[in-house]
Write a structure and sequence with these properties.
With about 800 residues, the chain is α/β, with parallel strands linked by helices. It folds into 3 domains: about 350 residues, Glycoside hydrolase, family 3, N-terminal domain (TIM Barrel); about 230 residues, Rossmann fold, CATH 3.40.50; about 140 residues, Immunoglobulins (Immunoglobulin-like, Sandwich), CATH 2.60.40. The chain contains 22 helices and 29 strands. The strands form 8 sheets. A 6-stranded mixed beta sheet has the order 11-16-15-14-12-13, with helices on both faces. Strands 1-2-3-4-5 form a 5-stranded parallel beta sheet. α15 packs across α20 and α17 packs parallel to α18. This is Glycoside hydrolase family 3 N-terminal domain-containing protein. It comes from Gilvimarinus gilvus. Belongs to the glycosyl hydrolase 3 family. Keywords: Hydrolase, Signal.
Length: about 800
């Protein structure tokens, strides 16, 4: 029977610090050690083949309690979504009840899940991949998506998610670029704040029962690995580290109330992130005032021995990680278990600090008051129609129109007799990494056929080529195809398709194209050609940015058929498409669009929806053009002897079926020093024939400074819907913080001097410009995001 001499930690009216202190004072050494460990592989020992909790087999796994239980949705009962959901719910509730009944202090566990673009669990809603969400340039939509994700995760038993990813991605060779919000620190910050608000709400001290604890990852520099190789060292100076890669995390901590951060696999200047005390402790905790937990990436502490070759033993690796600021080892307590087995060698103060931060997370989640799954969250909301509709809406706004010569798009269904849909995966729905099998999907071919069913248009199709031999067939039904999508991402070995077989498929596709009026040609990736390279036997980074396999040959042959072509990119990374794009009258970037991919794409192809996506990453002309990001330094683009240095498609680029006019830029600098904001106003009018969205973007250039500055930097954007002919006045309220940088002494300061302010439809399509002069230095301005006011002309006067 449990004995608790003090129940202060159960008093919800007591301050969190007091509750933690009282609970910590009652804990034994072993109980403390249990709180900084997680269980994943060990969970299999007390989970039956039907996914049920088996109390008689718990053994040492939970005897002293546990900090985290990893990925409960990955239970053994995965035959059908409904069975999987029910089994997970029962397992979570039974585990929590056992911890209440059978451990001395009755400390509940945190159950963490993966939820990059939807809960990575069977039957959950699959939203567009993160890079596609970033293409919407709509923090409002991103917040709504993450609200839905939080509800689905919590309804199934999870209460912490290992997302969002705030890596600033600067190398398209990197297979994880699809998991990010792009190459720009301001865009990543804005999307990260929105995701954070959707996941855990506005009050980090009291996370609601339909919210989850979010985990920012990966701290830091992970998005610019040497050679584009996952986990490779990140070569950068402190100024770039702070201004680019740390900024989204700082924004999320200071403005979003983030309470969990994951360290990254990589190293910076010889110091792996999991032992980088300067970053984890000195910057994040001391400078930023962060009080939340820092979790390890999966197996990363072991990798200090096996990969980085920094430490000789697991014990030494665990010791360094704990002292640097890592609070809990995921997914299983391997290195930490070995280290804590020798209590006389453990710094007890460091252990107490780590335990305190894990307990604080549990208090934030209200687990001491309600350790079980809230009854208000019905399992039926998992994968519900409302969430699937939201997924499709986001997908429609994520599609980027890269090119549209002679206004080929939108297609006029009434003028078509036969339409060809060609591509290696048009019969299935590519979901991207960190996905599971949703309840249903709509493939590209399904979506087009569904739209044209009442139009008396014949739809013909062909795969054209195979990308990979493994997990591929041209005519799978949607559920089987989704299973293939997941298997491709997980299977280590990737076998490229034989060109001889592809030659036959290309000839068949060309014959199909010849009998059509228009060809929709879908090329790109699958989940095995672009993915997280998590080991030497499971790779996903590339050295070439040409379309994988024989797809460029397919493109050439379809072009030779002489039919109008709409090229659709269904992919996880930007590709070098110079010759391909030149031959195409119309090009759409679709990324991975979630479970209703086909319906969203059909609506854009046929003009039900005007495309409004903007590129969150630049498209280089070749791998040799890397780095291709837009916010480069003035000396970075002198020129190549035999080619352009500029991007093929620039950051922020995205066309519309309508036309927009920008005018009347005014800069109000009267209150910059008095209240810390610069205001600028301009007019935006839809002068085209279609109702549509446009996203004006604000770029700033510090003309002269004490250190070199980028040629332009995004500091604001606002997505606006305008009916044909409508006009609005936009006000961007820009805090002085966005004029600041780290000076010669590594102090954050907005230096006095002239700035160029530019407003445009992309980083290379600038419509309006003005100069502004800051009268005096502003040292360490408060961190804030740009605010926006959209008003009618009558309101603005």
């Amino acid at each position: 029977m449990r004995h608790r001499s003090d129940r202060t930690h159960l008093d919800r009216n007591a301050a969190a610090d007091i509750r933690i202190e009282k609970l910590l004072s009652q804990m034994s050494y072993k109980e403390k050690v249990a709180q900084v460990q997680s269980v994943l592989a060990g969970r299999q020992a007390f989970e039956s083949e039907e996914g049920e909790f088996q109390s008689d087999l718990v053994g040492e796994h939970l005897k002293q309690g546990i900090g985290h239980v990893a990925r409960p949705a990955e239970n053994k009962a995965t035959v059908t979504p409904n069975k999987s959901i029910a089994a997970t719910i029962n397992f979570v509730n039974a585990t929590q009840q056992w911890l209440l009944d059978s451990t001395r202090l009755a400390i509940p566990a945190i159950f963490h899940e993966e939820a990059l673009h939807g809960h990575a669990a069977q039957g959950a809603t699959s939203f567009p991949q993160a890079i596609a969400m970033a293409s919407t340039f709509s923090p409002e939509l991103v917040e709504r998506v993450h609200e839905a994700i939080a509800r689905e995760v919590r309804a199934r038993g999870g209460n912490q998610v290992l997302s969002p990813i705030l890596d600033v991605a600067r190398d398209p060779r990197w297979g994880r670029i699809e998991e990010t919000f792009g190459e720009d620190p301001y865009l990543v910050s804005a999307m990260g704040l929105a995701a954070l608000a959707g996941l855990q709400g506005q009050d980090p001290d009291c996370i609601a029962e339909d919210k989850v604890l979010a985990t920012l990852k990966h701290l830091t520099g992970h998005g610019q690995p040497s050679g584009g190789l996952n986990t490779a060292p990140a070569e950068m100076g402190e100024r770039a580290l702070r201004e680019i890669f740390l900024l989204p995390f700082e924004v999320a901590v200071k403005l979003g109330g983030a309470s969990s951060i994951m360290a990254s696999y990589n190293e910076i200047d010889g110091i792996p992130s999991h032992v980088n005390k300067t970053i984890l402790n000195n910057i994040v905790r001391e400078e930023w005032g962060y009080q939340g937990s820092i979790v390890s990436d999966y197996f990363a502490i072991d990798e200090l021995v096996t990969k980085h070759q920094l430490c000789a033993t697991k014990e030494a690796a665990a010791d360094r990680a704990l002292h640097a600021g890592v609070d809990i080892e995921l997914p299983d307590g391997d290195a930490f278990a070995a280290y804590f087995a020798h209590p006389n060698q453990v710094n007890l103060a460091a252990l107490d600090a780590a335990v305190s931060r894990i307990l604080r997370n549990k208090l934030q989640l209200g687990l001491f008051e309600q350790p079980h799954i809230p009854k208000s969250l019905e399992p039926e909301l998992i994968g519900c129609g409302k969430h699937v509709q939201l997924s499709q809406r986001v997908a429609e706004q994520a599609i980027v129109l890269l090119k549209n010569d002679k206004q080929l798009l939108p297609l006029d269904a009434d003028s078509l007799t036969t339409l060809a849909v060609i591509g290696p995966h048009v019969h299935e729905t590519l979901l991207g990494g960190y996905s599971d099998v949703p309840s249903h999907t709509i493939s590209v071919l399904d979506g087009i056929q569904n739209y044209l069913r009442a139009k008396d248009v014949k739809v013909v199709s062909a795969p054209g080529v195979k990308l990979t031999e493994n997990h591929w067939q041209a005519g799978y039904d949607s559920i089987a195809a989704n299973t293939l999508s997941k298997e491709r991402w997980h299977t280590d070995q990737v076998v490229c398709a034989e060109s001889e077989e592809n030659s036959q498929l290309i000839e068949q596709a060309k014959a199909v194209a010849l009998e059509s009026d228009v060809v929709v040609l879908v090329v790109g990736d699958n989940e095995s050609t672009c993915r997280e390279a998590w080991s030497e036997s499971h790779l996903g980074d590339v050295s070439s940015l040409k379309l994988p396999g024989d797809q460029e040959t397919l493109v050439q042959e379809i072009v030779a058929a002489g039919k109008p072509i709409v090229l659709v990119l269904n992919n996880g990374r930007p590709y070098a498409l110079e010759s391909v794009a030149e031959a195409m009258p119309a090009v759409l970037e679709a990324w991975y669009l979630g479970q209703n991919t086909g319906a969203a794409l059909a609506n854009v192809l046929f003009g039900v929806v005007s495309p409004s996506g903007k590129l969150p990453v630049s498209f280089p002309r070749s791998a040799g053009h890397i780095p291709a990001y837009y916010n480069y330094k003035p000396t970075a683009k002198r020129g190549y002897a035999f080619g352009d240095t500029n991007a093929l498609f620039c950051f922020g680029h995205g066309l519309s079926y309508s036309t927009f006019e920008y005018s009347g830029l005014e800069v109000d600098e009267s209150r910059v020093l008095s209240n810390g904001y610069l205001r600028l106003h301009f007019h935006l009018q839809n002068i085209g024939q279609r109702d549509a969205y446009e996203t004006p973007q604000l770029y700033i250039r510090d003309q002269h400074a004490s250190v070199t500055r980028p040629v332009q930097e995004l500091k604001g954007f606002k997505k606006v819907f305008l009916a044909s002919g409508a006009e609005v006045r936009l006000t961007f309220k820009v805090p002085v913080f966005h004029l600041a940088f780290y000076d010669l002494e590594m102090k954050r300061v907005a230096e006095a001097g002239k700035f160029t302010l530019s407003v445009g439809a992309s980083s290379s399509d600038i419509r309006l410009s003005a100069e502004f002069e800051l009268a005096q230095d502003v040292v360490n301005p408060p961190i804030k995001m740009t605010e926006y006011v959209v008003s009618t002309l009558e309101e603005s006067t």
